[in-house]
Amino acid sequence: MNFDEYEQEILEAYENDQLVSSKNIENEITIAKKASQAYFTKDARINIRLSQSDLNIIKRLAAREGLAYQSLISSILHKYASGQI
Q: So what's the pLDDT on residue 20?
C-alpha cells in the first residue's frame, strides 16, 4: 500500500506500540461515526461530458485500483477541492 507521510507516522507508531487507548472509547467511536457519515454523504449530483478516450483511461485506472470509475472521479475531485492536489 502507498501511505502518505502522516499515514506512515501512524503505522510506525502502531508498530512500535506507541499508541495509547482513549479513556472514553465509546464516545470517540460515536463522534467518529457521525463525522464520517457527514463527510461521506454524497448529496449532490453532477453531469459532465468527457471524451471517450479520457473516460476509457479513467475506467482502466479505476479498475487497477479496484474502484468504480465514478468513485475514482469523486476522489480526484475531492482531493482537488480540499487542496491535496
A: 86
- How far apart CA 35 and CA 16 sit, in angstroms, is 28
Report the C-alpha gap between 12 and 6 in whole angstroms: 10
Q: Nearest Cα to 13, choosing from 1, 23, 3? A: 3
SS (H, E, C) 2-58: CCCHHHHHHHHHHHCCCCCCCCCHHHHHHHHHHHHHHHHCCCCCCCCCCCHHHHHHH
Is the entire prediction scored with pTM above 0.70? no
Q: Would you give the DSSP letter of residue 84?
A: -
- Measured CA to CA, the distance from residue 1 to residue 18 in angstroms comes to 22
Q: How far apart are CA 70 and CA 58, in angstroms?
A: 9
Average pLDDT over residues 70-77: 90
What does the block give as the cell for 82?
480540499
